[in-house]
TrEMBL record:
UniProt keyword annotations, A-Z: Cell inner membrane, Cell membrane, Membrane, Transmembrane, Transmembrane helix, Transport
Domain Tripartite ATP-independent periplasmic transporters DctQ component: 46-184
InterPro entries membership: DctQ (IPR055348), TRAP_DctQ (IPR007387)
Domain of life: Bacteria
Quaternary structure, from the entry: The complex comprises the extracytoplasmic solute receptor protein and the two transmembrane proteins.
Plastid found in the keyword field: no
Function: Part of the tripartite ATP-independent periplasmic (TRAP) transport system.
Protein's name according to its UniProt entry: TRAP transporter small permease protein
Amino acid sequence: MTQASRRPEGGSTEAAPRPADQARNVFDRGVMAGGRVAAWLVFVAMAISVFEVVMRYAFGSPTSWVHETVVMLVAVSFSLGGPATLACNRHIRVRVLYDSVGPRARLWLDRFNDLVTFGFCLGMSYAAFVMFWGATHSPLGEWRLERSGTAWNPPFPALVKGMILLALAIMCVQALLHLIQSLRGKPAPAPADVEDAA
């Protein structure tokens, strides 16, 4: 039975929890709202790709900016997908051990997972900062944006590296908040896909 078809006792037709209800805190809910906005970047990328096809094959006037813009939009959307996925607890996981233990052991596994996630995001944030600094500064430390090197030559490489840094910084905050919550005894909510399968 799917989550949407379940009804509480008494025959009430109360709506099933939405994925936003899987968020562990207010910060996660904000990240999920931002993720829904960032998802539209894929639609924008598709729309300008269609524009390019029409201009190239219907009017014989190809653009010089669509390809790089599409790559940048998809890269930004993909990088912001990480925090959104962590916020709604839908990241890829192997649940064999987690599902075979009781609630107390699960809480300790949550704590371990949150600690490892925080450490990983912290390390990756440092690497992303180094990468972003190199894309926005010359070897002498002067401000300059890394560009694509094409005829159009936009500063998209620097922009994408900045978005990767932002996404990892957000994930650091999320992982720290999750760790604090699990240390206080609040378990991670079951992901919606697991509840749907029940």
